[in-house]
Amino acid sequence: MNPEDLRTVGVIVGAHGLQGTFKLEPLSDFPERFEALRTVYLLRGETVLAQCTVKNLRWANALLLLTLREIRTRDEADQLRGVEVCVPDTETWTLPEDVYYTTDIIGYMGVAEDGTVLGTLKDIQAGAQDILQFEKDGDELLVPFVKEWVGTVNTEKRTIEILNWRQLASSEVIEPSPETDDD
Q1: Which of 31, 130, 168, 176 has the fewest CB atoms within 10 Å, i.e. is most exposed?
Q2: Which of 21, 67, 20, 61 minimizes the C-alpha distance to 40?
């Protein structure tokens, strides 16, 4: 299996217990996606380390505890910290409208409503709301991935429309209060 034929569904963040189970940070908004896992690929950088069979999977708060038949000890599990857990692209789930796989939109151009090119999407920071990180000429523009700031995602033109971008790009200057001035 080639790395470009895989889609990452989670990242190993550490070992759990003594039997080779590890903690997996899921990268999907659809938890039911993991219940269908039977076979996964372990990917470090551009190297596929192994094809593995899922032995057990359960949730522990926001993380998954995943046990693979091929990983039997805590040391083996701990050595996989940072490794991506992937499935073949052919097993990718169809997403609802206006939902995208991160890897599909990285590299898209951020474009303002007036056509101004704002930069290339370099990363998406996950959190309470995802933040799009665009870069252009060494400058960075962070855009909350919500309808107030993001318009149309055009998969044919590989663009993401950014609304009211000047508000995002302007810095706020807070003037000192005259009441707290020490002069």
Answers
A1: 176
A2: 67
